[in-house]
Amino acid sequence: MCRGTTGAPFVAWFTVPRAGFRYTQGKATRFHSSARVTRGFCPHCGTQLTFEEEGGADDIDVTVCSLDDPERLPPRKHICASSKRSWVKLADGLPEYRDGGDGG
Fold first, then answer.
1. How far apart are CA 50 and CA 68, in angstroms?
2. Cα 70 vs. chain centroid, distance in angstroms?
3. Tell me: the pLDDT tens digits for 13-38?
4. Taking the domains of the chain in order of start, what are their residue ranges?
């Protein structure tokens, strides 16, 4: 699903409690991409900012590279590795999880 909304082969995300998340400036444009999912986008450039699942965990997923300093949040694992493109080679030594990767 990440490829369909971003046009990229993968996306770096981090997860925070919804109660602890806020935008530091402006508001996102919200789009209901399915019955249970709302995505937030920058209203000026269209960059995807957030992913929220209704009825799921009380968390919000945020795109790392939309931050002012994405270097502060390096990846710790690869999730949904079963759906990566055949030409993507993950050679960074991080754990790979076939699906959601809740174990890491």
1. 15
2. 13
3. 999 999 989 999 999 999 998 899 99
4. 2-70, 74-104
CA 41, 85, 54, 73 torsion-angle sign: negative
The rounded radius of gyration (Å) of the Cα atoms in the chain is 14
Considering the entire predicted model, what is its pTM?
0.82
Identify whether the C-beta of residue 91 lies closer than 8 Å to the C-beta of residue 67. Answer: no
d(CA 46, CA 29): 9
Cβ atoms of 70 and 64 closer than 8 Å: yes
Task: Using the structure block, give the residue that is written with the tokens 């994405």.
Answer: 70
Which residue, 72, 64, 61, is CA-closest to 100? 61
Cα separation, 94 vs 45, in Å, equals: 31
Judge contact between 79 and 95, C-beta under 8 A.
Answer: no
